[in-house]
Specification:
This protein has 449 residues and is mainly alpha-helical. It folds into 2 domains: 1-78; 100-424, no CATH class. The protein has 19 helices and no strands.
């Protein structure tokens, strides 16, 4: 109708009043369309500022949840499908206590679900590492071969306890004495001592008792306890460093990469603790040398070279370390840059960085090795902390590697690390972001820089 009226007006065959009405109707529809478009644009402009804080608050649960949903089924098969039901069950229980959950609370529950599932999937070979130590101790006591000086092309068929023993000779008399005790008794004593060491370490870092106890199921801690690895005593040495700095010199006796953390004493110019620690190590070597002899030291060094060769045949020996995925030159470069970045600062922050750097620079790194990253992770803002904690709940690429990257990136990227202002911030529910340190800003709160 409007088209014919417009043509008639154009040809002069219609009265002017009708033409005016037609023109007015056409213009009204055009303006109405413009108004509707303007209204939609206005609503969109009002919605964008609303979406921005929502995206800023909820990106963490979305990213971590998507990672868990994708990774577990791909790597764990049908068992990986259990993550979502476990999380929903835990979240439902939490909602029974709280009507609403904040983003960081959701992330904490996601990590809890990931930890429980990973603990179940990794529950194999109870105290496997401790049994490697005990076998080496028994061989030492029986004057049999302790170190594997030839490369292994496959995992020993006799069992994981026949994997290479790689610790320095001064540890052999101790493990030899333990090997003389009943196996079950040693297992119980070792686990009890390890649990006490973990709790003491976490409390020293500033965690409340409830968080320290919950941390026992986080896979890096749980696997350290379940496998009986010496990483747990090493963690206690790191935790006590602000009070007993000389103890850092004993770390390399247990794990060579702990020598990176020892650099903290050099950076702090703590010459007296450094001298006392090195003297203690020399006395330990001198005291055990009559028991071990020089030959075991040579075999230990040959065993370390043989282990490097074994890793070429069995990449699984690298664990989740960067050396498994990078050429050696690239791995060395990344490790060197990370250590230099850690040495850039002093005080408690420098110590935390060096703990993380020791994990990055470890050619062979297993999940339990991430306990050295705990102080550095605790320096992250809540959303980044829970993301890193969740990524280290898995035992394959790319989770643990991304967690290392997050920890190191926070050294240089503003807004990733915690600060005093975070304690005054509150989310839309009026709560502070959930963080294991609570109102404490950084680890080792009892120590001053």
């Amino acid at each position: 109708m409007s088209a014919s009226v417009s043509l008639a007006c154009w040809g002069g065959t219609r009265p002017a009043t009708m033409c005016g009405v037609a023109a007015y109707g056409t213009m009204w529809r055009m303006r109405a369309g413009e108004n509707r478009g303007s209204a939609r644009g206005a609503r969109l402009r009002r919605l964008v500022p609303t979406l921005d804080p929502v995206a800023a608050a909820w990106w963490g649960p979305v990213v971590l949840g998507a990672f868990a949903i994708l990774w577990f089924p791909m790597e764990a098969g049908k068992h990986g499908l259990l993550w979502a039901p476990i999380f929903l069950l835990i979240a439902g229980a939490a909602l029974g206590v709280r009507r609403r959950l904040s983003p960081t609370e959701v992330m904490a529950l996601q990590v809890l679900a990931m930890a429980l599932l990973s603990d179940y999937l990794l529950a194999q070979d109870w105290q496997r590492d401790l049994h490697i130590y005990l076998l080496a101790g028994a061989n030492y006591m029986n004057h049999a071969a302790v170190y594997t000086t030839i490369a292994l092309q496959s995992q020993p068929k006799a069992g994981v306890e026949f994997l290479p023993f790689v610790y320095a000779p001064p540890t052999l008399p101790f493990f030899g004495l333990l090997s003389e005790l009943p196996r079950r008794l040693v297992d119980v004593l070792w686990v009890a001592g390890s649990v006490a060491a973990v709790l003491a370490s976490l409390r020293t870092f500033g965690l409340a008792w409830r968080w320290a106890l919950l941390a026992l199921i986080w896979p890096p801690v749980e696997q350290g306890l379940f496998s009986g690895n010496v990483v747990i005593p090493s963690l206690l040495i790191l935790a006590a460093a602000t009070r007993i700095g000389a103890g850092l010199a004993l770390g390399p006796v247990l794990k060579p990469q702990n020598g990176i953390v020892l650099l903290w004493l050099l950076r702090e110019r703590a010459w007296r603790p450094l001298g006392v620690g090195l003297l203690a190590v020399l006395l330990l070597v001198a005291a055990t040398l009559p028991l071990t002899g020089i030959e075991l030291w040579r075999q230990w060094i040959d065993g370390l070279f043989a282990l490097q060769q074994s890793m070429r045949y069995s990449p699984g020996l690298y664990g989740v370390g960067l050396g498994r995925y990078l050429p050696m030159w690239a791995f060395v470069a990344v490790a060197a840059v990370t250590v230099l970045g850690a040495l850039w600062v002093r005080g408690r922050e420098g110590l935390a960085r060096l703990g993380l750097a020791s994990a990055v620079a470890s050619p062979a790194l297993y999940i339990h090795g991430f306990v050295f990253a705990i102080p550095s992770f605790l320096r992250l803002r809540a959303e980044w902390l829970w993301l890193a904690a969740g990524l280290t709940c898995v035992y394959g690429w790319p989770g643990p590697q991304l967690a290392l990257g997050i920890g190191v990136a926070a050294w240089f990227v503003k807004g990733m690390a915690r600060n005093v202002a975070d304690e005054a911030a509150a989310d839309g529910l009026g709560r502070r972001p959930l963080h294991p340190l609570g109102s404490v800003v950084e680890p080792w709160p009892a120590a001053g820089d």
